[in-house]
Amino acid sequence: MLMLGGVHMNHLTEMAKRVNDVKNELADTITDRQSAKYPDKLGPISDVLRAERIKMISLYEELIMDDLDTALSRITQWGNATGALCSELGMTIDIALDELDYYREKFSDIIYEICEQEGCDLKSYHSYTKKLNMIIDQAAQSFSVAFVKQQKEFLNRAKEEIAELSVPVVPLEKKVAVLPLIGSIDTYRAKLLMEESLRKSAKQGISYFILDVSGVPIVDTMVASQLFQVINALKLLGVEAVITGIRPEIAQTMVSLGINFSTVKTYSSVKQAMAAYRKNNERQ
Asked: Does Phosphoprotein show up as a keyword for this record (predicted)?
């Protein structure tokens, strides 16, 4: 959208001045109303949000003078940065987007007042309001995309942290560790099981590694295969790996499935595995 000619430029200049005049008042109004509306969520971060609202209003003041493509590009950058920030601040997307109508309404009023004051023709008024709506819509769209992206990244990090807690390699004594597995083992957790077992064994200088499956409800062919892979990978690092905690009902299921653990040392408990380890060391 090109705004050519002195008349149009005068209109835009007056609009920009008016936006600057109401900047602080508008930011205060939005901050007070939104904090009253959402006291628990927005009250503690009201000062941070007010500063961001000042930035938004100041940006629109500049966008008034920009051509449409430049304005949309700049508001997209604003949306990307602010969406991520609001997500980090713990806001919900519905609360964050709730205030966009304040800007739309106030800036629309300014356009109307200036056009009435300056005697704008209908075509000019339409072009000004159309540009405003496109800017606000783009702000909402880019803000939402960035907000959701940040939320997904946060959830993925949380998932990874929780998953890491589900694969706790616990040192028992020098060069000895146990991995107490609790709960079902899916493909993602099996991958993590492999990675964490190797990484922590190498880091801690482990030579004897106990995989305790007493907390695993089902040991099927997939789970058994994953355990074999971990054991074989540990062997490549010079780590002896044993399995403990196979309950009677699990043993019956394994036999019926044809799962053969004869190539792996198994013990009824961690205590028994440790006794075998110490006895073997005494012989050496």
From this structure: yes
CA distance 234 to 211: 11
Residue 284's pLDDT is: 64
How many CB atoms within 10 Å of residue 167?
19
Domain ranges in the chain are 6-160, 170-283
pLDDT digits (tens, 9 = 90+) for 192-206: 889 889 999 999 999
* Structure tokens, 78: 């604003």
If you classify domain 6-160 with CATH, what class do you get?
mainly alpha
C-beta neighbour count of 65 within 10 angstroms? 14
Say if residue 149's pLDDT is above 60: yes
Q: What are φ and ψ of residue 146, in 5° steps?
A: -65, -40
Tell me, what DSSP letter sits at residue 219?
A: -
pLDDT digits (tens, 9 = 90+) for 219-269: 888 888 888 999 999 999 999 999 999 988 888 888 888 888 788 899 999
Q: Parallel, antiparallel, or unpaired: how do β-strands 170-173 and 176-182 relate? A: antiparallel
**What span, in angstroms and rounded, lies between the C-alpha atoms of 48 and 226?**
49
Q: Residue 90, SS3?
A: coil
3-state secondary structure of 75: helix
Beta strands in the chain (DSSP E): 170-173, 176-182, 208-215, 240-244, 266-267
The pTM for the full model equals 0.63
Comparing CA positions, the residue from 13, 49, 52 lying closest to residue 34 is: 49
Residue 3 has what pLDDT?
42
* Residue among 105, 161, 164 at smallest CA distance from 129: 105
Domain 170-283 sits in CATH 3.30.70.100: no
Output the six-digit token pair for 3: 């705004």
Tokens 């800036």, residue?
Answer: 107
